[in-house]
Inverse folding.
């Protein structure tokens, strides 16, 4: 038999004795006195661990609830519980004065709505109402806005294909200066979704003939809709019309994907109507992307053989137009080809500088993306924690209120539950505010700066509102399932215990 | 006085104490007999002692050996236990075999 203090189990037991309250000291010593009689090293360790956990549990409970009581209409609420409730309330009042917290809540609201409706952006009914208003007020901008938002992700059914086209046509009929919206409706994959892109792109070419973008869109449409046969859609098609459209795109004087106009339109409607910040961010994020450069690179080889200077020029225009990665790639390819034909025509220092700039831009994007993913998960988990702890807190407070109204005693377990749920809610609220803070900066920047070069910030803010199980990665796919599964197990466990305890409750004789 | 929660674990402990009602029992022996871990056993003993259903005392030992705490049912506890256990037995509660696996 080993004496107390001779091994880890004894040391743990000795340490745990300190946790015992005044009324439990005798019992703690009684447990410790049994330790030398436990069988074997494992038996002693088991006894010691079990006793220590019990003493720790009682210590925690005492800290949370077992102190002086606060009188409340003759019944009692223990002081730490009242303190936890007051602290949480004060915290929420304080946080509500912070614009970052208020804005974060609007994004969280959009996240919950998107999760419940499996939809991002406006509903059909909302778009129809906006369209009616635009017609009634003869508001071309609002009509263009409705047209652009009719093709949002996850709304690709026949209704939206035809509606988007009709609304765009109505907007252009009201104001021909809005013809650019055809470009945003007919870009890349949307060219399949929106019927009548053929005519719209023609009209766009006629309206803005010195811009590369309409020709690039025409080439994209041909690459996608041309019968591919065994050809991969991104390989150069055999259609001579594709070559003609690409040649015009490389020779055009401007590259304007209408990002500025699109961003301006989104902002105008947002300020006019104070629409959802999340929808604005999605609109601003979309303002940055338009042309499919996979298609452009297919033609690049042809143009390099014909006139490398055209490739360099288009690259510079694309860089200036808000896509430095695609633009620099084009420019550098042009430099290499030009140097092959006429060595030394582009200084090596200039090539090295632009290569470095491209590398830094790509790396910066990658770093930003990985840290952003972590923040995205943190934000969404915190929203879930806010919801779960807030709901539990509300339910427990309602139970507490009910008991107080019926002049029943509020049990220790209920009070401990309220204190813990309130603590979790307060923690989640503060963490939520801290996590949203940098995104608030992105949103403010996007509202101030009309350039689509800053589309990544709005994209990040908007992405917060897209439930993460929509991203097909194993982590994002399973995180919510795990959280929900644990919640269900915990609830089932609590319900089972409550029923069992209710059945076993017997008054002493 | 608040109610005693008559759980299955309480029942196992009461049955162990009822098996030799006049004898003083050690905590570790009760733990082995009922299969309850100390973290479960002692809260039940504390609650029963608070309700005066169980009495506890320190054993008298010769010097150099630490004393142990002992427990047995009080007269009131004995009457209550004899009344409650048959009622609970009807609900299908099963008692684990003594020393079965060293705990649940």
């Amino acid at each position: 038999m080993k004496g107390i203090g001779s091994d880890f189990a004894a040391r743990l037991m000795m340490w745990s004795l300190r946790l015992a309250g005044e009324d439990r000291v005798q019992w703690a010593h009684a447990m410790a006195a049994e330790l030398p009689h436990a069988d074997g090293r494992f038996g002693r360790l088991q006894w010691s661990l079990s006793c220590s956990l019990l003493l720790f549990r009682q210590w925690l409970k005492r800290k949370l609830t077992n102190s002086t009581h606060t009188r409340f209409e003759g019944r009692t609420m223990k002081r730490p519980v009242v303190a936890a409730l007051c602290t949480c309330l004060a915290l929420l009042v304080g946080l509500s004065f912070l614009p970052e917290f208020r804005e974060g809540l609007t994004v969280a609201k959009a996240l919950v709505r998107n999760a419940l409706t499996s939809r991002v952006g406006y509903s059909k009914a909302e778009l129809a109402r906006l369209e009616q208003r635009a017609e009634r007020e003869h508001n071309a901008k609002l009509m263009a806005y409705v047209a652009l938002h009719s093709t949002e992700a996850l709304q690709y059914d026949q209704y939206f294909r035809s509606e988007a086209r009709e609304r765009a046509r109505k907007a252009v009929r009201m104001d021909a200066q809005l013809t650019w919206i055809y470009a945003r409706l007919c870009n890349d994959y949307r060219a399949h979704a929106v019927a009548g892109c053929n005519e719209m792109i023609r009209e766009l070419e006629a309206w803005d003939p010195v811009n590369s973008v309409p020709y690039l869109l025409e080439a994209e449409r041909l690459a996608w809709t041309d019968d591919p046969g065994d050809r991969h859609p991104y390989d150069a098609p055999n259609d001579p019309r594709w070559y003609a459209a690409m040649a015009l795109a490389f020779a055009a004087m401007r590259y304007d994907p209408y990002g500025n106009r699109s961003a301006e339109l989104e902002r105008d409607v947002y300020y006019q109507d104070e629409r959802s910040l999340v929808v604005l961010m999605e609109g601003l994020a979309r303002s940055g992307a338009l042309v499919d450069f996979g298609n452009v690179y297919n033609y690049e080889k042809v143009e390099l053989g014909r006139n490398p200077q055209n490739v360099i020029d288009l690259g510079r225009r694309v860089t200036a137009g808000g896509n430095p990665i695609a633009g620099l790639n084009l420019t550098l390819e042009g430099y290499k080809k030009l140097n092959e034909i006429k060595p030394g025509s582009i200084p090596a220092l200039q090539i090295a500088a632009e290569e470095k700039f491209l590398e830094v831009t790509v790396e910066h994007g990658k770093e930003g993306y990985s840290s952003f993913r972590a923040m995205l998960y943190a934000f969404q988990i915190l929203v879930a924690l806010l919801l779960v702890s807030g709901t539990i807190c509300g339910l427990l407070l309602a139970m507490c209120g009910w008991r107080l109204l019926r002049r029943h005693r509020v049990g220790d377990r209920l009070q401990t539950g309220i204190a813990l749920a309130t603590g979790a809610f307060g923690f989640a609220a503060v963490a939520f505010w801290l996590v949203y803070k940098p995104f608030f900066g992105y949103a403010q920047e996007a509202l101030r700066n009309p350039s689509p070069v800053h589309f990544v910030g709005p994209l990040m803010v908007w992405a917060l509102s897209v439930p993460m199980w929509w991203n097909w990665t194993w982590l994002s796919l399973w995180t919510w399932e795990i959280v929900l599964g644990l919640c269900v197990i915990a609830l089932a466990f609590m319900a089972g215990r409550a029923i069992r305890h209710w059945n076993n409750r017997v008054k002493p004789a | 006085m608040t109610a005693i929660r008559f759980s299955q674990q309480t029942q196992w402990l009461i049955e162990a104490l009822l098996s030799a009602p006049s004898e003083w029992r050690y905590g570790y022996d009760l733990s082995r007999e009922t299969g309850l871990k100390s973290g479960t056993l002692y809260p039940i003993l504390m609650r029963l002692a608070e309700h005066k259903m169980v009495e506890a005392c320190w054993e008298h030992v010769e010097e150099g050996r630490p004393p142990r705490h002992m427990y047995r049912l009080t007269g009131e506890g004995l009457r209550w236990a004899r009344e409650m256990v048959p009622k609970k037995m009807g609900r299908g509660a099963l008692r684990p075999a003594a020393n079965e696996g060293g705990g649940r």
